[in-house]
Design brief:
heterotrimer; A alpha/beta; B alpha+beta; C alpha+beta; A: alpha/beta; 5-stranded mixed beta sheet; 21 helices; B: alpha+beta; Uridine Diphospho-n-acetylenolpyruvylglucosamine Reductase, domain 3; Alpha-Beta Plaits; 7-stranded antiparallel beta sheet; 5-stranded antiparallel beta sheet; 18 strands; 34% helix; globular
């Protein structure tokens, strides 16, 4: 079977010294107490498959499937193990070797046929909005997870949003696939902040999904196709930075698009770099912040969003315990592994509610959806919003 | 493989999901943080004391070895099931049961992660002092079993100084409380003998620990030295001056390079060695002590002295130290690590011996250790994929340990004897010394099911192969 | 009954003497400085008194390593004098001083006020050598300050009152003399003691007395100590007060130990007019008994109900018999008995004196 594990790099795997420092950073280990559901365990497993010292066995797939891909382990790993790269390669290899599973096939189909095509996705968004009005979505779990959909985000005429005042920078903005449908308000706030910060914002026409959801689920081919298409689009324009307000997409663009090297910026990273004007309104609200895994761990950005939030006059910022531990959303994970996702969410909600904050600020649509659904189920009126919205409270 | 009736018995206790017998899954539990591995016959996850007790009774009935296991971060093979049997996993027992801010104590389950406890009690202005470098992941249960140390043990003492009492399960499945939060308890100090017994006398199911007040002021300083020898002398000079810092840590140039590549903590990569010094107390006392220490370091060839100005800077300096051993993975994928202790004044001698041994075997060695305690951590770096090298690595490690013993030292300062150093116990203890320890073992575990193959030399398993070095005689005992 | 007095010259000789006595099934009572002979029950038998008087050498003191190894019969004062040459000391200040031997202190586990800052000798005992009734000498630990090589045999013998073996030598981590050492006093009783407990630098020793007097000793950095002492605003006291305090040894006394948070209540509930002193930071009080055996038993009951203990340190034989030396045996007594049998199968060591 070893020949099947061709995408895994033995040199990557060998960087793990088996010290175990990652264990308690892993949400699935924290829940299960099982090393089979830990980064060290998964790497050990993949290493044995790669080296042919352990037969691949269908039962083992679950350990790979249960990984959230949150990469918290990567941030705490002193040996610099490239876990993100390992698990993506491992997933791709496992996809080849596994027995077909209807749910996984379905999600791949949905990704390839729906998410990769902006027009079809828009259509699906409209259909869902209608279904919500008719209360049809509450029937399925995945339906209950969805936020109440608003009108989809539309880039301005001419695909340009001008800087307010003097133009200091020109940035491209990733509109993305599901974000404009699920959380148009985040985009509106993000773009406005960029304009306030003196950025002219360009919306690359024809831009498609960045491919993150594909890569995270072992469909590297699908991800490559999207990269090729998008790279052409980006070449057509000039910009100082490609600003991304979704952490998962940002991380993927940084890792997977060599041509954009150094120019992909998370919204908070960029705003911290260029500065935003002084707040215009005084606010009074207690805020806590949930790190997005793909921001805190994959991109190592934890300070900037906190600094920006803290800088708003009148925001009382409370740090939640385990803020940098995943909420269990992890892209399609909440659909593919609903039980584990829910257990992780339950633990997360304890920490969230303990802050007694009015607002939980997030930096990624997946986290927002997961926390909203969780808080809704607990009957809490704590509001979840994107960091751009929190910052826009002051303007 | 356990016979299926026994597996069913175990499942009857902890539930179907909590007994792992699939050979492929068991593979993941064959190792801890050390080099050697051995497959368990089953992994059993306990969630309560009752689970542990019932599992122990089953094991006792069938004479199956039981090896308690926490996060498996140990570095001496303590959690390796070398004779097979049950790996009794306590990672699900991770509740902090009580925190008493007035009495300054906490009652925790064994699977509570060391750092998690300090995070939780920080709201009361308290902390748990023992801080092994693996504190992000290692468990208090494992710490108690190994009597773990850490950088701050120089001033605060090791785990045994902070464990007030424990609930333990003995080899017959009986449950007992040993000691508690009252000083001077009547009778023998069972808690004292059980802490550090490496899972060979009992399984630990609850631990009552002492908490300390977070000092109002902490000062941390980094100093560079031209060589390991000069740094070692500076360490002795500081302590000789009557100053016991909270921590006094050393890293050699190899380590500094690896650490700096990952943490960017501002360690001087051109130095021969780096010292990390910390003092705590009130603002007045840390200022006074730091000034005194700076003077001593300066007089002893220290340069580039840099004091952390913010808590974030301090954290970064420590992140580098605590992640140092893992960071060595950047040089070679595997390390073999000993943790011998020598009288502090012998550090220069032992470190030069370590260097020579590394050169002799052509193996890179990185030193990162608790200099204030004389507790060294020579890391021999290698790539396990090279099958030839492992034997060389073991021999080199053994020689280093021999050098430690020859200089009046001990085999282990904080990692435990475990599997790795059992064969060397006779270097420091006579037959009668070991005989006395055996009497203790036989009282607690007469049938020998608890973590067999650990601590005591096992002639059948592995012999010492002390190759090469001529070796001085072990220094005469002082009594 | 004739009691043989033996005072071996060396550890080996002591081990041999012990073996010969054990073979003859003679009861052996180890004696150090004789300062704690009143502790525990009166020995049910005593055929041989085994004195450690001649084992009184400092075996090795490394100033740079701050480690000292001594034979068990050396007195605390002789050791302190030796260490003082290098401005070091062993932070033990037991009551009924002077004259304690190191072996005696380890066997009894006696402590004094400095325990608050430094812990008991249990915390800085790093090596031990013990003679067992089979004539063997067994070492545990070593002479390094941090050591997990094998079982922590030091803990087994510390406070075991010689019931498992006779301590012949020990190694300690020693401490530098503090940079600054100041003692202050007040007559504000427990409330003032609580104030001292909450100062930003904790005192190294804190004692409160039945007459309301409080003694607080602060050690460490000069600036820090002076600031704390100034804020406290108490009266300065001579350092020699501690020597006088350590000499305390009433003819009839007991040690009450309890969780720190329970100690005050226990002490305040002592019979009216009782004389006592306590270390509130540790959870230990000493009571100079002037009342009858019944009231001692009542106090013990209260102490045990709070999770603590009351141990008699000295009293006339009949009083001691009535009160009992140790109180309710611990729940783990069977394990302790098994350990006793493993080390002293014939029960020749200190029979009747300890709980096992």
């Amino acid at each position: 079977m070893t020949s099947n594990f061709s995408r895994l790099s033995d040199d990557d795997l060998a960087t793990c010294v088996h010290c175990g420092l990652c264990l308690d950073a892993c949400p699935t280990f924290r829940i299960t107490g099982l090393e089979t559901e830990s980064p060290r365990g998964r790497i050990y497993l993949m290493t044995q498959w790669k080296r042919g010292t352990l037969e691949f066995d269908q039962e083992q797939v679950k350990h790979i499937d249960l990984c959230l891909g949150c990469r918290t382990c990567e941030a705490v790993c002193p040996s610099g193990v490239p876990y993100g790269r390992i698990i993506e390669a491992g997933r791709a290899d496992v996809e080849d070797a596994r027995r077909p599973a209807p749910k996984r096939l379905g999600s791949r189909l949905a990704l390839r046929q729906l998410v990769a095509h902006p027009a079809r996705l828009r259509l699906a968004g409209n259909a869902t909005r209608l279904a919500q009005r008719l209360h049809l979505t509450s029937i399925a779990r995945s339906g209950r997870m969805l936020p109440r959909l608003r009108a989809r985000y539309c880039p301005p005429e001419g695909n340009i949003a001008p800087a307010f005042g003097e133009r200091k920078h020109r940035v491209a903005f990733l509109v993305g696939c599901v974000m404009p449908i699920l959380y148009p308000q985040s985009h509106y706030a993000a773009v406005k902040l960029l304009q306030l910060a003196g950025c002219e914002v360009w919306f690359p026409p024809g831009e498609r999904c960045c491919g993150a959801l594909f890569a995270h689920n072992g469909d590297l081919k699908g991800a490559e196709r999207l990269r090729e298409a998008n790279t052409k689009t980006y070449r057509a324009g000039s910009f100082d930075a490609l600003v991304v307000d979704s952490a998962g997409c940002g991380a993927h663009l940084k890792d997977f698009y060599p041509e954009l090297k150094g120019r992909v910026k998370d919204l908070t990273e960029w705003l911290a770099e260029v500065g935003i004007p002084a707040p215009q309104k005084k606010v009074k609200v207690r805020v806590t912040y949930q790190d997005a895994c793909h921001l805190a761990h994959a991109q190592r950005i934890k300070k900037q969003p906190r600094d920006l939030i803290r800088a708003v006059d009148g925001i009382e910022f409370v740090e939640m315990r385990h803020a940098d531990i995943c909420c269990g959303a992890a892209g399609l994970y909440s659909t593919l592994e609903p039980d584990m996702s829910q257990r992780i969410l339950d633990q997360k909600l304890e920490d969230v509610l303990a802050t007694k904050a009015e607002v939980v600020t997030v930096a990624n649509p997946g986290c927002q959806m997961q926390l909203e659904a969780g808080l809704r189920a607990r009957g809490s009126n704590m509001k979840v919003e994107h960091v751009a919205e929190t910052l826009m409270r002051a303007f | 493989m356990l016979p299926s009736p026994i597996v069913e018995e175990l499942r009857g206790v902890v539930g179907r999901e909590s007994v792992i017998v699939s050979p492929n899954d068991l593979r993941i539990f064959e190792r801890d943080g050390s080099i050697e591995g051995a497959l368990p016959d089953a992994v059993v996850l306990a969630s309560t004391t009752e689970h542990v007790a019932e599992v122990m009774k089953i094991a006792a009935r069938h004479k199956i070895p039981v090896v308690p296991r926490g996060a498996g971060t140990g570095l001496s093979g303590g959690a390796v099931t070398i004779r097979g049997g049950i790996a009794l996993q306590v990672t699900r027992m991770r509740r902090i049961l009580e925190v008493d801010p007035v009495a300054q104590t906490a009652l925790v389950e064994p699977g509570v992660v060391n750092q998690e406890l300090s995070l939780v009690v920080a709201q009361h202005g308290l902390f748990y002092a023992p801080d092994p470098s693996s504190q992000k992941a290692c468990t208090i249960g494992g710490n108690a079993a190994e009597n773990s140390g850490g950088p701050h043990c120089l001033y605060y003492g090791v785990t045994t100084n902070h464990v007030l009492g424990m609930e333990v399960v003995l080899a017959d499945g009986s449950v007992h409380w040993v000691s508690g939060d009252t000083p001077d308890r009547t009778g023998l100090d069972l808690c004292g003998i059980l802490v550090g017994s490496e899972g060979t006398l009992c399984a630990i199911t609850k631990i009552k620990v002492r908490l300390l007040r977070i000092p109002p002021s902490i000062a941390t300083m980094l100093a560079a030295f031209p060589s390991i020898e000069t740094a070692s002398q500076a360490v002795s000079a500081v302590i000789g001056r009557g100053i016991v810092p909270a921590a006094l840590e050393m890293m050699d140039s190899v380590t500094v390079g690896a650490v700096e590549a990952h943490y960017h903590a501002g360690y001087p990569t051109d130095a021969g060695a780096v010292l990390l010094v910390e003092v705590d107390g009130t603002a007045e006392s840390t200022r006074e002590l730091m000034a005194a220490i700076a003077k001593v370091l300066d007089e002893n060839h220290g340069y580039g002295l840099r004091e952390a100005q913010t808590p974030a800077e301090r954290e970064l300096l420590w992140a580098g130290r605590k992640g140092a051993i893992g960071a060595l993975g950047r040089i070679k994928p595997n390390y073999y690590l000993h943790d011998g202790v020598v009288p502090r004044s012998r550090l220069p001698q032992v470190l030069s011996a370590v260097g020579e041994i590394g050169e002799h075997y052509k193996l890179p060695v990185a030193n990162v250790f608790h200099a204030g305690d004389g507790n060294l951590h020579p890391n021999i770096l290698f790539d396990m994929r090279d099958k030839e090298v492992l034997h060389q690595v073991e021999s080199a490690g053994e020689e280093m340990l021999r050098a430690v013993v020859e200089l009046g030292g001990a085999l282990s300062g904080e990692h435990g004897i475990g599997l790795e150093k059992a064969a060397f116990m006779s270097w420091i203890y006579s037959e009668d010394d070991l005989g006395a320890m055996h009497r203790v073992k036989d009282v607690f575990d007469p049938t020998g099911i608890l973590n067999p193959g650990k601590i005591f030399p096992d002639d059948a398993r592995r012999t010492v192969h002390l190759a090469g070095r001529t070796g001085l005689a072990v220094e005469a005992k002082w009594w | 009954m004739v009691v043989t007095q033996e005072a071996p010259r060396t550890a080996d000789e002591l081990a041999t003497t012990l073996r010969e006595a054990a073979q003859a099934k003679l009861a052996v009572v180890p004696v150090g400085g004789g300062r704690a002979q009143g502790m525990g029950g009166a020995p049910s038998r005593c055929d041989v008194e085994l004195h450690t008087t001649h084992l009184d050498r400092v075996l090795e003191h490394s100033q740079a390593d701050m480690v000292v190894s001594v034979e068990a019969g050396i007195t605390l004062e002789a050791l302190q004098e030796h260490l003082a040459r290098d401005r070091q000391f062993l932070p033990v200040d037991p009551f009924n001083s002077p004259g304690h031997t190191i072996g005696g202190l380890l066997a009894t586990g006696w402590t004094g006020p400095l325990r608050f800052r430094f812990g008991s000798a249990r915390d800085f005992l790093i090596g031990i050598r013990v003679a067992t009734p089979d004539g063997k000498l067994a070492t545990g630990g070593g002479r390094v300050v941090k050591n997990v090589s094998g079982y922590d045999m030091m803990k087994l013998h510390y406070g075991a009152l010689g019931s498992l073996g006779v301590i012949v030598a020990a190694s300690f981590k020693v401490f530098p003399r503090p940079l600054h050492d100041v003692t202050v006093t007040s007559d504000g009783g427990w409330d003032d003691a609580d104030r001292a407990l909450a100062t930003p630098v904790a005192p190294s020793a804190l004692e409160v007395f039945s007459d309301g007097r409080v003694l607080a000793r602060y050690t460490g950095s000069r600036d820090a100590v002076e600031r704390v002492v100034k804020e406290l605003g108490w009266t300065a006291e001579e350092q020699s007060i501690w020597d006088r305090h350590a000499r305390r040894a009433p003819a009839r006394w007991a040690r009450i130990a309890a969780p720190r948070t329970e100690l005050r209540r226990l002490v305040e509930d002592l019979p009216r007019g009782a004389g006592w002193w306590a270390s509130p930071g540790v959870g230990v009080a000493h009571w100079a008994i002037a009342s009858d055996a019944r009231s001692v038993k009542e106090v013990r009951q209260r102490a045990e109900a709070a999770g603590g203990s009351l141990v008699m340190l000295a009293a006339p034989d009949d009083f001691l018999r009535e009160v009992g030396a140790w109180g309710t045996p611990p729940a783990t007594i069977e394990i302790m008995r098994n350990l006793k049998r493993a080390f002293d199968p014939d029960g020749v060591l200190n029979p009747g004196r300890f709980v096992v």
